[in-house]
Structures are given as structure tokens and as C-alpha cells.
Amino acid sequence: MILGGIRVALFPDSIKTVNPNSSSTDHFKPREDRDLVYPQPVIYYKTERMDLLTVAMLSVACFVLYRIISFTVKLLKVVLLCEYPPNADELPSLPFVGHAYLLVGGTEVILKRILELGKIYPTSFRFLFGNNSVYITTSPQHIKEILLSPKTIEKNYFYEFGRPWMGDGLITAPASIWEVHRKLLQPSFNPVALKSYVKTFATQSVIMTKRMDQQLDGPEFEIYKYIFLNSLDTICATAMGINLEAQVNEECQYDEAIRKVMAGFTERAVSPWLYPDFVFYRTPLGKDLMKQVNYLHELTDSVIRQKKAEIVRRGDQRVSADEERDADAGPQILIENLFRLSDDNKTLTDKEVRDHVDTMIVAGSDTTAITMNYVLLMLASHQDIQEKVYQELCDIFGEHVLNDDSEELHITMDVLARMAYMERVIKETMRLFVVGPVTFRKTTEDLDLGGHTVPRGSSVMVNVMGVHRSEKYWPDALKFDPDRFSPERFAKQEPYSYLPFSGGRRNCLGAKYAMMFMKTMTATVLRKYVLTKDKVVPVEDVRLKLDFLLKSVHPDTVRIKRRAKQHAS
Ligand code: HEM
């Protein structure tokens, strides 16, 4: 090493060899040669000692400085998202927080980072969330391994936050309970049960459009709140058999409570200091969340009491989940099916029934409403596609679709199955705006992921939105193109590159219910209105956030005008 014209070798047996005129290889020469060349060893020895200390200190300083600079450069590269080497080990981590500093900045930043990291590390990488490792994957092959593995049936600790409300409902249940209860609940979503819900979908959707009439020919308005209240009324009618009337009752406390609870979950998930229960439930946020949860539980409990009394009054007239019933007899109400299970098999307690009903409301209301929000936004933004969907409705319903706008459409399972183009539109919307951008699991044994071991007890995160928006699997990924879902094109699609309802054994139980309901809503809206946007916002400019589920940063708005009455060709 050369310092100020003095050469110093950092090898133990050549430490004292210093000569400004010597060549760079002097210190490797035999000792005798050096003694001959340098006859004043004592003086040189002192100088060498001092220099060595300085050198050592300077070396340490240089090393530290180098680490700081390289860390800062890497950090800036990640934060500013320039090119970044695709090696996850190089993702700078900080003591105590790990990589969590990347998520600072709110729910919009979190979603953005997840998508960007998915691009930088297109397979799987380890993300340090404080002291916890989360293995994040954006690879369909790895996702398949995760979702199909019996080692990842368990959900990770984030889901614990939902347990005060949803208890042992399917979303939050530990694997041992989930295994049994999933089988028990499955019949409530079989074709016979689904058929019985169709009338409720149509009735509630007409109430929604009647309320939307107040926006006719006006400026753009926020569509989500109309859709959400429809979803809530519909899910409460089919899960609990009650008419909540959130759509007609402006000040619905139930709706308010659900919003507050969901906002509380999100805030806790992004604030690691609120993770311990003994901290969270002492904060104003935690206390208010429990207040709202208690209110929601009271409502479900009172419905349980009421329904039980009804069942006793009705005696043995209950219909089993797979028995056909008259269309006018109303929906097969989930809660009643669950009572039958608890009576017949003594499997479910009242608390478990409540957990399942509450879970269905959480799982089914906001998810459907958010998706529908984007379906209507996409239709308003793509007039040609809206026209095609409308023409399909004309083909199915004939003149009836056009002329009878105050009444329900005659929706049947067969009619819903014929809405093939509309289904592509909904699927493409769910690709671009997937309600659950990420899902988590926990490994209960070591898991091999693409040749690397994910240790037992780790969290695994599936970056669903990262895959859905990846150019690798979806060329021209941000283009809204429903024909990606034509049977011919979709057959060529990489398996596990499309997961709006998750996949594997813990996939969405209500996927068919949701699709039927969304088709009914879309048909009811489009038969009556033409949707438009004053200024179309390209998909890439719709600002999104991860707020428990996917949400828009700014409310999405559309304009509606009455569809001109005309006769189908
Ligand atoms: C567009 C609407 C919907 C979407 C996008 C959706 C999506 C999902 C996703 C991604 C999961 C997996 C969650 C996870 O692993 O963390 C899930 C689970 C679930 N969903 Fe849905 N869902 C929708 C509508 C519904 C509806 C309407 C219901 C019921 C009426 C429902 C009931 C459930 C249930 C019970 C689970 C838990 C399944 C289990 O763990 O066994 N979902 N859903």
C-alpha cells in the first residue's frame, strides 16, 4: 500500500520495510538483503510504527466510508428505483427494521414498492420486516409450489389482527379448524344454493340503479358508495337473511362500523409498534376498533337468536343445502345452513356460526364492491368495449333489456352463463385491479422454493398484482384488453399467472357467487345508463394504494346518462 510516498506492506513479517526508493516487491525480499540496503533500522522502525497506526485508522475510516457510500447509493437506487442488480442479498437492510424502511410513506408507497420490488426480483427474495423474514414471490412457478403445498395451509401473523372480528371464520382460522369447516361450508356455494341467490342479486341491483338515478345527466360522481351498499345489503340478505336496507338508509351504522374496522386493521398492519395486543388495545385506535367489533358482533348475535327462534317455529321445514327450492322461496341463507350443521352434526357452536357469517360479510362485500367499481370505471373509459357488452345483453334479452328499465331483469343461471364477453371484461378488470394484491401464508415445514429452502415458520407473500401486471406474462400489461380471456388466448397463459381469487385449497369460496353477482350488477347498470368519463385516465395513472385491500387514492368517478331506447336488431 502506498501512503504519502512511503510504501507499507500489510504482511506481519514485512511490517518494518520502508524505503521511498525501493520497488514495490522489496518487502518480499529475504531479510539479509533489506538489512544491507537500510542500515538505520531504529529510526525507520519508529516511523513505521506511527505510519502503521495511521494507516490502520485510515483504512478503517476508508472502509466505513466506503460502506456508507455504497449503502447510500444502493438505498438511493432502490428508493429512486433506477436500475438495481437483481440480487436480493444486495437489498440494503437496516438494524432492527430490516427492509421495512422501504415501506415508509403510507399505503400508496407500500403498493408501489411491492410492485417495483417484484420487477427488480422477478422470482423470489427475502424481505426483512423487522426481525421477521418474509419470502416474497412474483414467480408463477413458485406461487404454484406455495399454493399447492400442504406445508403452507396456515396463514401468517397478519391475519391474527382480523381474529377479534372474524374469529375462526375461514379466512383467519388455523389450519386444523379450517380443514373441517371448509368442507362444512362448501355446500352453501354449490350450484343449487347459488341459483337461489340470483333473485336477491337482481332485486338489490335495481335498488342501486334507482338510487343512482339522482346522478342522471349530472357531473361525474363517486360510484363506489352506491356499489358498496348494494354489496352489503346483498351479502347480509344471503348470509343472514336480513334486510339491512343500507341502500335506503343513509345513516347505516353497520356500514360505518365495517369501514372503521377495516381502516383499523390497515393502520395496524403498517405500524409494527402496534403489533403487540397489549399495546394496540390500549391505543384510541385499538379501543375504537373493539367498540365497532362489539357492535358488529351484537348484530350477528341478535340475528342468530332471531333465526333460531324462527327455525323452532317452522319445525322441520328447513331445506337442505343441495335441495332444489322454488325461486320465490328466497335464498338459501347461510346462517340457516350452518344451524342445520350445528344441529345435525353438533359441529358448530353459536360462536362459530357467528365467525362464519361475519367472515362472509367481510370477504364478500368490499371485495365485490371494489372490483365492480373498477369494472364500471373501465367500461366508462372504453366506449367500444361498453358497447360490445351492451350488444351482448341485447342479444340475450332482446327488446326487454331496452324498454323495461324500472323492473328487474329476468336473470337466471343460464342467462348469466351466456354473458361471455362481459365475463372477459370482469376478468380483465380483476387482472389489472386485483382486490387482494398480496396474500400471505406461513410455512409449517421447510419448503423448497426454486432450489432454495424457506425455513419452517417463515412468512411467504404472493405478489399477485406483481404477476398480473408483469410484461413477462401479460404482454402490453397495462392495456385493458378483455380478449386476453378468450378461451384460445387464455389457454396459452402461464399457469398461476392469474389469481384474483387466490388458488389452491385456500382459494376464494365465494368466487362463483361474486362473478354471478357482478354480472347481474353490470347488466342492471348498462341496460339503463351509458357510462362516460370527461377525461379518461390511463390505467397506469390510476393511483392505487394497499389499504387492507386494493383501493384508489382518489375516488373513481363516472358520468351517467340514460340509454336511448331502441330496438334490438
Ligand atoms: C370479486 C370478489 C371477490 C374476490 C376478488 C375475492 C378474493 C378472495 C381471495 C384472494 C381470497 C384468499 C384470501 C387469502 O388467502 O388471504 C378469498 C378468500 C375467501 N373468500 Fe373471496 N373474494 C371475492 C368475493 C367473495 C364472496 C362474495 C364471498 C362470499 C360470499 C367470499 C368468500 C371468501 C371466503 C370464505 C374466503 C376464505 C376461503 C378459505 O380460506 O377457505 N369471497 N377471496
From TrEMBL:
PROSITE patterns: CYTOCHROME_P450. The keyword Endoplasmic reticulum applies. GO terms for molecular function: heme binding; iron ion binding; monooxygenase activity; oxidoreductase activity, acting on paired donors, with incorporation or reduction of molecular oxygen. One of its GO terms (cellular component) is endoplasmic reticulum membrane. Keywords: Endoplasmic reticulum, Heme, Iron, Membrane, Metal-binding, Microsome, Monooxygenase, Oxidoreductase, Transmembrane, Transmembrane helix. Its main location: endoplasmic reticulum. The chain crosses the membrane at residues 52-73. Its cofactor is heme. It is found in: Endoplasmic reticulum membrane; Microsome membrane. Heme binds at residue 508. It is a peripheral membrane protein. CDD domains: CYP4. It holds the Pfam family p450. May be involved in the metabolism of insect hormones and in the breakdown of synthetic insecticides. Belongs to the cytochrome P450 family. This is Cytochrome P450 4C1 isoform X2. It comes from Neodiprion lecontei (Redheaded pine sawfly). The lineage of its organism: Eukaryota, Metazoa, Ecdysozoa, Arthropoda, Hexapoda. The gene is LOC107225778.
